[in-house]
Amino acid sequence: MDFARHLGAAEVGYGGSARLRPLEFLPWILALAVYFLAPSYLALGSYVLIMILFALSLDLVLGYGGIVTLGHAAYFGFGAYAAGVFATNATGDPLPGLVVAGVAAGLLGLATGAVILRTHGLALLMLTLAITSIVFEVASQWSSVTGGSDGMHSVPITPVLGLFKFDLFGKTAYLYCLAVLLAGWWLVRSVVHSPFGMALSGTRENDARMHAIGAPVYQRRLIAYTLSAALAGVAGALLTHTTQFVGLSVLTFELSGEIVVMLVLGGIRRIYGAFVGPIVFLVARDYLAKQSPEYWTLGVGLLLVIIVMFARGGILGLVDALVGRAAGRKD
Amino acid sequence: MEFLSGLVSTLFLGLAYGAVLYVISVGLSVTMGLMGFVNLAHGVFAMAGGYLVITGMQKLGLPWLAALLLSCAAVALASMLLERLLYSRLYGAGELEQVLFTIGLIFVAVAVARLAYGTNPVFIKPPEFLEGQTRLFGRSFPSYRLAVIVFSAVLIAALWIGLERTRWGAMVRAAVDNRAMAQSIGIDTGRLFTLTFALGSGLAALGGALGADLIAMTPTYPFEQLVYFLIVVSIGGLGTLRGPFIGALLIGIGDTACKYWVPQFGAFFVYAATMALLLWRPQGLLGRAH
Amino acid sequence: MPALETRALCKSFGALTVAEKIDFRLEAGARHALIGPNGAGKTTFINILTGRLAPSSGSVLLGGEDITRLGQSARVKRGLGRTFQINTLFRELSVLDNVALGVAERTGIAGRMWRAASAHRKVRDEAAALLQSLGLADDARRRVLDLPYGKQRLVEIAIALGLKPSVLLLDEPAAGVPSMESTRILEVLNRLPAGIAILIIEHDMELVFRFAKRITVLVQGQVLCEGTPAEIAIDPRVREVYLGEGHG
Question: For B109, which of A8, B44, B282, C140 could close a Cys bridge (C-beta 3.0–4.6 Å)?
C-alpha cells in the first residue's frame, strides 16, 4: 500500500488529510543535526539541499504532471545565470536575487511550456532537449554577459538580510538553503494536496477523462510547468549564491538526466522521494566517484536498469513494499 | 568564386554528414515506429560499431573491411540479446520507464567505453584504396567521404527495395501501421521486432564506424549525438525509411551550413528549426498523425 | 424544445461516410436508446455529440443552443456528460477521488492551489453521497484498478453524474460486464434522476428493451427507423438487419 498509511505521512486526496504527520518533521531534524554534528560536510550539505529543491520542482512536473522531461536543467541553469547577472549588475542582495531568478525562470517556463505542452511523447521529450540546448548555446556564446565557457567567477553576494555573511565554512549557506528549501517544500506540498494538484494528477492518469469532465487540461499543465520552472530557477539561484559562481555545467543534459535519476531513485510522486533520492545519490557519489568515476557511471547505469525492472517506486517504493509485508497486509 | 566554392564544399560535407546520420538513424526510426519504444540508447550501437572496428584493426590485425563487417555483425548479435532479455520486457511500459532504462544503458556503455578505450577521441584509418582525393566536375573531393555518400545511396536503395518487395518488408509496414491488427493476422511481431532491431543496430554500427571521421568517436558519443539522432528521426517522422532520409539531409546540410556560414550561432538554428517544425507538425514531416 | 438535437449531421473520413444526414432529437427526461449493428457509427455519433470529433456538416444543439463549434470542456460546462465504452478512469486514484474530480470541476474549485482538497468538505460529501446512491460507498477509499470490472463501469457512471448533466450519453454501459452484474447496472440506470435526458448505446437487447422508452436504429451511418420498443421489435426492417445477430 502506501508508505503514507503505514508510517503516518499525510494522505493526498479529497478523502485524505493534509495535516502534518510526525514523520514529516524528520527531514528537518536530520538537516539540523547535520548542521551541528557534521560541520565539515556543510558544502556538500548545501548542494544536497539545493538538489532536493530541484528534485521537488521536477516531481511536480514529472511525478504529478506525468510530463517526461529531460530538459529541466534549462530552468535551473537559467535561474542560476539570472541570479549571477543580477548580482553582478544590480545588487548582490540574495533575497531579491532569488525572486528575480524565480520570475525569470518562471517566464522561460511559461514561454517554452506554452509551446511544448501542445505535444506529447517523443516530440515533447525532443523539445525539452532542444530547449536546454538552445539555452546552453546562448549562455555559451553570449560571453560578455555570461562569461561564456569560463562562467562567472566571484559573483558578489552580500550578506543575507544584511546580517548573515556567507562564511568560508558554509554555515550561512547551509541555513540559507535550508530556509529556502523549507519554503519550497511547503509550496509543493500545498499544491500537491490542493484541488489543483488533484486535477494535475488527473491529467496524468487519464487525459481523455479530464477533458470529458470539462477540465482545462492544457492550462492546468502549463501552470504546473511554469511553477515548476520557477522553483527550479530558485534552486539554481541558490547554487550561484552559495558558491559565488555560475558555469555552463548548470545547463547540461547531464544535469537534467542526473536530477531525473535522483528523483526516480528516491521515488517519484511521494514528495519525500525528492529528499531521499538526492541524499543517497550525492552522498554515494561523494564517496564512490572519487575512487573511480568510470565505475560510478557504470553503477548508476546498472542501478537505473534495476530500478526500472524491479523497483519502479524507487527507495521509498521498496520501503513501502517491505513495511507492507511486515505489517502483513495483502494488496 | 569563393562563395561558390564554399557552397560546394558545404554541400558536399553536408551530404557526407547527412549520409552518416541516415545510416545510423534509419534503424532508430523504424524500430521506434514499429515498437513504439523510446530508445534513447541507439547511439550506443553506433559507438560500439566504431570502437569494435578499432579493436578489430589494432588488436586483431584485421583489414578495414573485415573489421567493419565483423563489428557490425557483433553489434547486431549483441543487440538481439539485449532486445530479447531486456527491451522486450518494457514494450508495454510507460514512457518514463523506457527513457530511464535506455539512459541507464547509455551510462553503462559510456563507462565501459571509457574503461576500455580511454577518454580521448579515436580515429579509424580508412583503407588505402579510399585514401586521397578524387577529381569530379573539375574539383577535388576526399575519396573516403565520396565513397561514404555513394555507399549510403546504394544502401538507401537496397533498404527501399527490401521494404517494398520482400515479405519481411511487408510485415514491417503492416506492423508499423497497426500492431494489433498485424498480430491478429498471424504476424509474429516478437520475432519481427528482434530481427528489425538487429538490422537497425547493425546499420547504426556501420554508420558509426564509417562516420568516425565526421562524428568523433569518444566515450560520451551516445550522449553527445543523441539530440541529433532524435532530431533526424523526429522531423522525418517515425516508422518510415523516407522520414529519416529527409531528416538526415536537412540536418546534415543545415547543420554544416550553419557551422560554416554563421559559426557564432553554432547549432542554434538547428534546434530552433526543429522546435518550429515539431510545433507545426508534431508527427514529423512524413509521420502519421495519431 | 428537445434537450439535445442534431440536424442533418454528416461525417466523412475521406471517402468513408460514417454519418449521413442524421436528424436526431432527445427530449428532456428521455430514456432513449441507440442501437445498430457493429460499425453502424454509433460511437462516432457520440463523439460528435460530445465534441471529441467535429462533424463534416450539420449542427448539434444542446437545449436549443448551437454547440457545433464548441469544444468538449465547453459542452460539459453546459450540461453534457458522457461515459466511455471502455473504462476511462483515473485508475491509480481512489473511487472517491475519481468522482470528486468531476464535482470539483463543476463547482469551480478545481483550480485552487492553496487549501487542501480534503478541506473542501462539500466536494467530498457530494462525491460520497453520489457513491452511496450507486451502492459504491464501501469502495470509496479503494483504488479503481483494484475494483472488479462491473464496479468500474459504475464508477464511469458516477463520474458523469457528478457533473450534474442535463443530458447524459452512456456508451455501452454494460459492455464487458458479466450478465449477473449487468442487472445491477440496469438498476442504477432506472434510478437515475428523472430530469436528465439519457441516451444509451447498447448491444445488450434485454437491457435496451427494459430501459428505453424510445429507440433509434442506426445502420451504416443513417437512421433506419425510430419508435417505441414495441414498434421497433416488430419492425421488419429491423429484424432483417439483426437477422443472424445472435441474442436479440
Answer: B44
Say which DSSP state A249 is in: G
| From the candidate CATH numbers 3.60.150.10, 3.40.50.300, 3.90.1210.10, 3.40.640.10, the one assigned to the domain spanning C4-242 | 3.40.50.300
Average pLDDT for C116-140: 91
Instruction: Output the pLDDT for position A7.
Output: 46
* CA angle, C71 then C76 then C81, to 5°: 125
Residue stretches of chain A with pLDDT short of 50: 1-9, 331
Q: How many C-beta atoms lie closer than 10 Å to residue A186's C-beta?
A: 10
pLDDT for the residue numbered C246: 47
Q: Considering the domain boundaries, does residue A259 fall inside one? A: no
Instruction: Measure B43 CA to nearest chain A CA, in Å.
Output: 15
Which residues of B fall below an 8 Å CB-CB distance to A?
32, 38, 86, 89-90, 93, 95-97, 99-101, 103-112, 114-115, 223, 226-227, 230-231, 234, 238, 264-268, 271-272, 274-275, 278-279, 282-283
Mutate which of A118, A297, A300, A310 to disrupt the B interface (most B C-beta within 10 Å)?
A297
* Burial track C197-213 (b if 16+ CB lie within 10 A, e otherwise): bbbbbbbbbebbbebbe
Judge whether residue C39 has pLDDT over 80: no
CB contact, 8 Å: A198 with chain C? yes
The Cα of B227 is separated from the nearest Cα of chain A by a number of Å equal to 7
Helix (H, G, I), strand (E, B) or coil at C11: strand
pLDDT score for A331:
47
| Any domain includes A140 | yes
Residue B122 confidence (pLDDT): 84
Distance CA A298, CA B270 (A): 32
Domain ranges of chain B: 16-219
Are chains C and B in contact at 3+ CB pairs closer than 8 Å?
A: no
pTM of the model: 0.90
CA distance B11 to C244: 67
**Residue B216 to residue B124: CA distance in whole angstroms:** 10
For residue C129, pLDDT beyond 60:
yes
Q: Cα A30 vs. chain centroid, distance in angstroms?
A: 19
Interface test with chain B among A133, A141, A262, A268, by most B beta carbons within 10 Å: A133
Q: Please name the amino acid found at residue A235.
A: A
The full 3-state SS of chain B, as one line of letters, equals CHHHHHHHHHHHHHHHHHHHHHHHHHHHHHHHHHHCCCCCCHHHHHHHHHHHHHHHHHCCCCCHHHHHHHHHHHHHHHHHHHHHHCHHHHCCCCHHHHHHHHHHHHHHHHHHHHHHHCCCCECCCCCHHHCCEEEECCEEEEHHHHHHHHHHHHHHHHHHHHHHHCHHHHHHHHHHHCHHHHHHCCCCHHHHHHHHHHHHHHHHHHHHHHHHHCCCECCCHHHHHHHHHHHHHHHHCCCCCHHHHHHHHHHHHHHHHHHHHCHHHCCHHHHHHHHHHHHHCCCCCCCCCC
Put simply, whether A194 touches C (Cβ < 8 Å) is yes
Q: Which residues of A touch C72 (CB under 8 A)?
A: 211-212, 214
**Mean pLDDT of successive 10-residue stretches along chain B, which has 290 residues:** 80 92 92 85 94 89 89 95 91 89 94 90 81 80 88 89 84 80 81 90 93 88 88 85 88 88 78 84 71
Q: Is residue A21 part of a domain?
A: no
Alpha-carbon distance B180 to nearest alpha carbon in chain A (angstroms): 20
What is the amino acid identity at position A219? Answer: Q
- Phi, psi (rounded to 5 degrees) for A99: -65, -45
Structural domain boundaries, residue A75: 27-253
Domain count, chain A: 1
pLDDT at C235: 86
Q: Has residue A274 been placed in a domain? A: no
Q: Enumerate the domain spans of chain C.
A: 4-242
